[in-house]
Amino acid sequence: MVLVYAESPNGQFKKAAFEAVAYGHLTALALGTSCVALVLGDTADAGQLGLYGASTVYQVQNDHFSDFDSQVYTAVIASAAQKLGAQVVVVSHTSTGKSLLGRLAVKLHAGSVAGAKAVPDTANGFVVEKGVFSGKATAQYAIQSAVKVVSVMGNSIPIKADGHIASVQSLDVAVPPSRVKVLERKTVSGGKAPLPEAELVVSAGRGLKGPENWGIVEELADALGATTACSRPVADIGWRPHHEHVGQTGVAIRPNLYIAAGISGAIQHLAGVNSSKVIVVINKDPEAPFFKAADYGVVGDAFEVLPRLAEAVKRFKNS
Amino acid sequence: MKRLVCISKTPDTTAPISFSSDGTTFNSAGVQYILNPYDEWYALVRAVELKEKQGGTVTVLHVGLAENDQIIRKALAIGGDDAIRVNADPKSAFFTAKQIAEVAQSGGYEVVFCGKETIDYNASEVGAMVAECLEVPFISYATHMEVNGQTATITRDVEGGSEVVEVVAPFVVSAAKGMAEQRIPNMRGIMMAKNKPLKVVEPITVENPVSVVQYSLPPAKQGVKMVSPEDMDELVRLLHEEAKVI
Fold first, then answer.
1. Domain end point (choices A137, A170, A203)
2. For B165, which of A101, A143, A180 is closest by C-beta distance?
3. Which of A71, A115, B85, B129 fits A102 for a cystine, CB–CB 3.0-4.6 Å?
4. Contact A312/B233, CB-based, under 8 Å?
5. Edge-to-edge, what's the strand order for the sheet holding B2-7?
6. ipTM, 2 decimals?
7. Interface contacts A/B by beta carbons within 8 Å
8. Closest CA to A266 of A289, A234, A250, A249
9. Residue A220: CA count within 13 A, CB half-sphere
10. Where in the sequence is the domain holding A20, given as residue range(s)?
11. Could you tell me which of B170, B140, B169 has the C-alpha nearest to residue B156?
């Protein structure tokens, strides 16, 4: 059996949970077994995970799941996996999933692969593909242990809600007390998709000359429904908040579309964005190194090109 | 407080990435190795800052062969008091984590610091594994950390925001951007580092449950398609019809 832990922060599933279930479903098909999902705490419409391939959804109820503690979550997921006899455990490669994966591997005496990009090849063992060297290469990992745990990289598994609503059964598993106390929560995304999950990202760098000029970046992002990002220098000098910094030492992203304006494309920046499916570079310097990594390039002044592109996107959306 | 900072070596960001012709091993010829930036800039520097403010010790731990001693010396130059090297070439996160947990347990360390991930294998697994081996809390993606006695108050990144949490030692923390600022070792630090103790210990036996069977490089980009800055309707058309991303 394949067991998928489906994250439900604040009682809601996000795309990462559906992707993990879709991955678990495809893995189960390859192994000729079934895929079930596990939900911790109160979650609206847990049965909808069936649409993505879960045959049953197991739910563990406890008041303490609202404060995330990787030790507690690991104990519960591992107990559920043992109780249900899971041979593969799947989590999302989110900040939550990443802090669970290694713990689950130890607890279940399982081999693990973090950030899988493709469904395992089971023709000859259990081989999982993931990106390495900050997106500059790909590696195939063979997991030899009997139990396996895998975290699924966001935006790498297509999801289709073409299954059926699954039955939700409560599962009785002991929940140990937490040793982590959450004092405060802050939300920063302002309604937009957080960068690691965003499908469309509009980013700008020092070429924008000052924080007061970011209106044209936001206008394009709003027209597209995209999340905004920035280069490291821009975050370091305080023009934009640090959580918008994409690159080697900031956030690594893999959207479908990455539009970069006024960013030259240093290798440290590319390391965080080179997994984007399509890259558009707007720069007035035709020699900017970023053009070498781009799919589409526009040599021009960002102050003219960005508003023009925003208008073109609006015309397209209205047509 | 006894602090243990785990450091890893990684190829420099600008290093050329290539593999043997059968794709089974990484070509390290001509590759410059560095201290993993997350371990150095954020985990190590914050541990040293806390030591400078509150006393206690900072021990640097590396799992690797003697050729990596210069990376350990750099960490000592930044402010570590002493170092331990587990004498083995690690082949998996699990192997590394088991060695770290062994050292942390036998040495009675109260806080284990690591970077949020290495920039080569990008797995973020080691910290979580160490925490589970030690059966202690793991606070990941820490961007700020204060310690009062045995209690730490840590800001961590979570999906779509951040959380402030409180945790009592012992625990494992993984450091992300914001935790500290990069420190360039000064001449005095570099000189002192030469005489700081570096203990070499042999690894415990651990079986690797995973192994890399094949590396590959992504297909080269087709080449950039240039669009006139005057014609953004054309760019939108290409993104819609050709790239199919909007």
1. A170
2. A180
3. B129
4. yes
5. A180-187, B161-168, B151-158, B138-148, B171-175, B111-115, B2-7, B57-63, B82-86, B198-201
6. 0.94
7. 279
8. A289
9. 29
10. 2-170
11. B140
